[in-house]
Design a protein that fits this description.
Cyt_c_oxidase_assmbl_Pet191, 5 helices, Cytochrome c oxidase assembly factor 5, mainly alpha
Length: 80
């Protein structure tokens, strides 16, 4: 999880924005994007990303899923 110093905020204020930003940075810093010069989408499709990015991808999926699940309305959104 990325830490933001002081009054820094994401430009994206939507739901799951923090998880999305962390996943994006994780993918861009992975060897697949840096050394192989692939796009993050290609790296995800090839399953050639580190386990940390896989965990963030699953967290992002659960966060987006909780927006559609009416049961989650009472429990709150997953993610951060």
């Amino acid at each position: 999880m990325m830490r933001y110093e002081g009054n820094e905020k994401l430009a994206d204020e939507s739901s799951c924005a923090g998880v999305r930003a962390d996943l994006k940075m994780c993918l861009l810093e992975s060897e697949c994007c840096r050394l192989d010069k692939k796009t993050p989408r290609q790296c995800l499709q090839d399953n050639s990303v580190p386990p940390e990015c896989q965990v963030l991808r699953n967290t992002f999926y659960e966060c987006k899923r909780s927006l559609l699940d009416n049961r989650q309305r009472f429990r709150g959104r997953k993610g951060y």
